[in-house]
């Protein structure tokens, strides 16, 4: 059982399209660097999308302003995923997006002038709520009806894909754009700093010396279609979403359990749902944020599920930074790229294995192996853990 | 100013040490969810689903203020509790639940989307799903509503409602959710409402109780004519915002109210909740009494 993916789009620190992202992944080129757009006085390392709001607004021909950066990034990726598809009265089309910050970037602008009593523009606040972020993307794409937003912190993007697949299987929709978008904000950067898990150096997932994450921004969307829809659109299949699961860790509001309870459940249940054997997983795109806590908990979960035979795995966050609610969607695109191009992307900045688990991620681009099935993990605040299984077969 | 919130004795539901750090929306949600779980007599639901329009506003405002006014290291608590999934996460923590855990945030349709997700899960085979909605008002929201000339007819307030949605009818069941839809960027609400009733085989005289969301927005000219066609006496048409006040997920309150009415008045077999709090968003929920 699988749901067909017939379109994908992405914007991240390593590129403004699927092609650009693939090139950077092949070349092992990171998009993380000192801040330029959000606040150029800060030298913190971030994964910024290399385009200003003004440029994005012009390029995307946005019809109505103000619009948040989160919506702009989302629209860029959603347009690429939607491609040249046409609206059709026969097809129930929906959109499910994920975001953690919504229009916080605009709210910050507003709040600065509000605190300074400097003619604050209250209209900016209309873009604050997460639902508006998705509505704006939907409106620009001409989608109405089922428009929904999920917010489960760092697992949000994966949950949007999961919900979209379920909506198609239960025949509530014929096709659906699923993904996530998050812009960099002072709110989130200072938030992770306050938790003392923001690394001033390059993030080093699965390395013994890891000491935190680098935040990034971006968006990605997949177009999922049922048979009826494909019968009409004639779209080619890029890959399949075969399995999904969501489980609660129920350990701590921000930390993952040391025994990886929620993560183990999510991975196990996603594999079961997919009907694909653990031994057939060619590659794991790990959550791998670079924090002490996540990478250890995730490593333990991988060992719980795969025992001595942990598949090739890597975290792609050293390329993009941790894009929060967009991460699950961005990494879904990377998983599909891995399958389509028979590639395993190396885990940058890795040197030594975590002592407790001794797992070694892939450190050089692998090009010689057929990749049939990929597991993608997304774990977040609030103990929200989700895993997805993608493959090249139904 | 927001009206005063009727608060239970939270200590009966939440440990004092945890309670101290919890914002209004967290207290309301955790207490409400626990009360709901105990009423239903179900120890561990298979899933926990929450809808929230604006999330944890108190902590969001607090942390945003800190970010923009304080140099150097900030206390993390308000950041930790600012994310939209804090309620669902805290509920799972408080009862040790490892099931499906989800948070929907589609402004005035967040509750309907959460309910729809819960109904999908039940159709997929889950037995019991805890589903609820919560939003909290902060003083700043009133300021925004004035600055944006929203001309609200009711006060802005806070609220939380939780329900246990079960696959099988039991002795504790008191209403059945027949159907729900959440439609965004709607241009013809009247047509959508008619289609919804038709799909559920409800004739124009088949609705016994109608709950609607005020009469201060542009949709209501269309909607009113349709609702008048339901030929309901005035007492059976209730503006639920006049009872709950305004918050993005107030339609969850309406579902609770309708279910209570069904319990006390056995002539109410079918209730329709029509949510047009934001004029381009249409939420419809159809409840039936368990005997129906």
Structure explained in plain terms:
Chain A is α/β, with parallel strands linked by helices. Chain A has two domains: 3-233, Peroxisomal Thiolase, Chain A, domain 1, CATH 3.40.47.10; 242-391, Peroxisomal Thiolase, Chain A, domain 1 (3-Layer(aba) Sandwich), CATH 3.40.47. Chain A has helices at residues 18-27, 53-60, 69-82, 104-115, 130-141, 156-169, 186-194, 227-233, 261-274, 292-306, 317-320, 327-341; strands at residues 3-11, 33-34, 45-46, 93-98, 147-150, 175-182, 218-225, 239-248, 283-285, 312-314, 373-380, 384-391. Chain A is 34% helix and 18% strand. Chain B has 292 residues and is an alpha/beta fold. Chain B folds into two domains: 10-166, Peroxisomal Thiolase, Chain A, domain 1 (3-Layer(aba) Sandwich), CATH 3.40.47; 176-288, Peroxisomal Thiolase, Chain A, domain 1 (3-Layer(aba) Sandwich). Chain B has helices at residues 16-19, 24-40, 57-69, 77-80, 86-95, 110-123, 139-147, 189-199, 220-228, 241-244, 250-264; strands at 47-51, 100-104, 128-135, 159-166, 176-183, 209-212, 237-239, 270-275, 282-288. Chain B has a five-stranded mixed beta sheet with strand order 5-9-8-6-7, sandwiched between helices. A four-stranded mixed beta sheet of chain B has the order 2-1-3-4, sandwiched between helices. In chain B, strand 6, helix 9 and strand 7 form a beta-alpha-beta unit. Chains A and B meet through helix 4, helix 5, strand 5, helix 6 and helix 7 of A and helix 3, helix 5, strand 2 and helix 6 of B.
């Amino acid at each position: 059982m699988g749901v067909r993916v017939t379109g994908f789009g992405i914007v991240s620190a390593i590129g403004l399209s699927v092609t650009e992202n693939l090139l950077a992944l092949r070349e092992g080129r990171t998009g993380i660097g000192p801040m330029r757009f959000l606040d150029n006085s800060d030298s913190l390392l971030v994964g910024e999308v290399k385009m200003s709001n003004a440029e994005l607004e012009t390029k995307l021909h946005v019809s109505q302003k103000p619009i948040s950066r989160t919506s702009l990034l989302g629209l860029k990726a959603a347009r690429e995923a939607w491609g040249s598809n046409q609206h059709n009265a026969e097809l129930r089309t929906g959109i499910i997006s994920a975001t953690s910050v919504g229009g916080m970037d605009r709210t910050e602008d507003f709040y600065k002038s509000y605190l300074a009593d400097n003619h604050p523009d209250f209209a900016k606040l209309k873009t604050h709520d997460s639902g508006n972020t998705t509505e704006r993307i939907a409106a620009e794409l001409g989608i109405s009806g089922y428009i929904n937003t999920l917010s489960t912190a760092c697992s949000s993007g994966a949950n949007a894909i999961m919900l979209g697949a379920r909506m198609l299987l239960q025949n509530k929709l014929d096709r659906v754009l699923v993904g996530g978008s998050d812009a960099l904000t002072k709110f989130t950067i200072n938030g992770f700093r306050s938790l003392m898990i923001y690394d001033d150096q390059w993030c080093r997932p699965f390395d013994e010396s890891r000491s935190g994450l680098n935040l990034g921004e971006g968006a990605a969307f997949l177009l999922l279609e049922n048979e009826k829809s494909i019968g009409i659109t004639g779209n080619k299949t890029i890959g399949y979403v075969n399995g999904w699961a969501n489980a609660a860790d129920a350990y701590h509001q921000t930390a993952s359990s040391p025994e990886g309870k929620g993560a183990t459940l999510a991975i196990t249940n996603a594999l079961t749902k997919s009907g694909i054997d653990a031994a057939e997983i060619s590659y794991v795109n790990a959550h791998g944020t670079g924090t002490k806590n996540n990478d250890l908990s995730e490593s333990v979960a991988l060992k719980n599920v795969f025992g001595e035979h942990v598949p090739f795995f890597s975290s792609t966050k050293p390329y993009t930074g941790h894009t929060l609610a967009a991460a699950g969607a961005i990494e879904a695109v990377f998983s599909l790229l891995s399958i389509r191009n028979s590639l395993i992307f190396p885990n940058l900045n890795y040197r030594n294995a975590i002592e407790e688990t001794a797992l070694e991620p892939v450190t050089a681009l692998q090009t010689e192996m057929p990749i049939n099935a990929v597991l993608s993990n997304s774990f977040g605040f609030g103990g929200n853990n989700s895993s997805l299984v993608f493959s090249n077969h139904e | 100013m927001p009206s005063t919130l009727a608060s239970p004795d939270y200590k009966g539901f939440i440990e004092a040490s945890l309670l101290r750090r919890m914002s209004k929306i967290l207290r309301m949600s955790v207490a409400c969810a626990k009360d709901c779980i105990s009423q239903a007599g179900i120890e561990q639901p298979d899933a926990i689903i929450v809808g929230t329009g604006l999330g944890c506003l108190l902590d969001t405002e607090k942390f945003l203020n800190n970010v923009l006014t304080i140099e150097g290291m900030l206390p993390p608590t308000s950041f930790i509790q600012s994310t939209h999934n804090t309620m669902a996460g805290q509920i799972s923590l408080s009862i040790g639940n490892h099931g499906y855990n989800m948070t929907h945030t589609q402004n005035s349709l967040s509750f309907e989307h959460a309910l729809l997700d819960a109904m999908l899960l039940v159709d997929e085979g889950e037995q019991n799903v805890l589903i609820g909605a919560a939003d909290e008002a902060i003083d700043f929201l009133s300021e925004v509503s004035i600055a944006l000339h929203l001309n609200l007819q009711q006060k802005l307030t806070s609220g939380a409602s939780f329900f246990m949605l079960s696959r099988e009818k039991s002795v504790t069941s008191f209403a059945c959710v027949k159907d729900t839809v959440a439609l965004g960027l709607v241009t013809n609400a009247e047509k959508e409402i008619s289609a919804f009733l038709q799909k559920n085989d409800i004739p124009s005289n088949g609705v016994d109780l109608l709950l609607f969301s005020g009469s201060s927005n542009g949709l209501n000219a269309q909607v009113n004519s349709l609702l008048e066609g339901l030929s309901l006496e005035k007492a059976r048409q209730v503006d639920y915002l006049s009872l709950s006040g305004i918050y993005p997920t107030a339609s969850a309150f309406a579902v609770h109210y309708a279910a209570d009415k069904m319990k006390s008045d056995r002539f109410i077999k079918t209730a329709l909740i029509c949510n047009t709090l934001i004029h381009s968003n249409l939420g419809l929920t159809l409840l039936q009494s368990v005997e129906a």
